């Protein structure tokens, strides 16, 4: 599934990486625990989290995920968005809760990491 399809499906606002929404997303990793993301994330993945500090983008960069989606309408500070832009990591935000996001994406064929 393309990231722009996820944007539309989840009614997301794009905070960074508007020019990089054609990336393919194959799996999803969802957690507020960055150590869990690091342990299980793979490339071509969408990282879903409610943690909006700079550590979330550092984690995404180290794990090599394709994009970050903040849930529950949580918005990171400008320095976090700027860091994501520097790392060329698309950042989206939706008002949906993590559980619902995962259910919608699962119903569209995306799976979690196994």
Defining traits:
5 helices, six-stranded mixed sheet, 6 strands, 114 residues, alpha/beta
Structural commentary:
The protein has 114 residues and is α/β, with parallel strands linked by helices. The protein has a single domain, classed as Udp-n-acetylmuramoylalanyl-d-glutamate--2,6- Diaminopimelate Ligase, Chain: A, domain 1 (3-Layer(aba) Sandwich). Helix content is 39%, strand content 19%. The protein has 5 helices and 6 strands. A 6-stranded mixed beta sheet has the order 1-5-4-3-2-6, with helices on both faces. α2 links the parallel β2 and β3.
Lay out the secondary structure.
Blueprint: H1 3-9, E1 13-16, E2 27-30, H2 34-40, E3 45-49, H3 54-63, E4 67-70, H4 78-87, E5 91-93, H5 98-107, E6 111-112
Parallel strand pairs: 2-3, 2-6, 3-4, 4-5
Antiparallel strand pairs: 1-5
Helix pairs in contact: 2-3
Number of domains: 1
Estimate percent helicity. Answer: 25-40%
Arithmetic mean pLDDT:
94
CATH hierarchy, class: Alpha Beta
What's the CATH topology label? Udp-n-acetylmuramoylalanyl-d-glutamate--2,6- Diaminopimelate Ligase, Chain: A, domain 1
CATH superfamily grouping = HprK N-terminal domain-like
In short:
The protein is α/β, with parallel strands linked by helices and 114 residues long.
């Amino acid at each position: 599934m393309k990231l722009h399809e996820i944007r539309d499906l989840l009614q997301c606002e794009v905070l960074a990486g508007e020019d990089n929404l054609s990336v393919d997303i194959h799996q999803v990793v969802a957690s507020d625990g960055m150590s869990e993301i690091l342990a299980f994330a793979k490339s071509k993945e969408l990282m879903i989290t409610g943690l909006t500090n700079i550590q979330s983008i550092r984690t995404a960069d180290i794990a090599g995920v394709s994009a970050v989606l903040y849930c529950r309408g949580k918005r990171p500070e400008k320095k976090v968005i700027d860091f994501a832009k520097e790392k060329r990591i698309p950042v989206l935000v939706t008002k949906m809760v993590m559980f619902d996001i995962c259910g919608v994406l699962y119903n569209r064929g995306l799976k979690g990491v196994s």
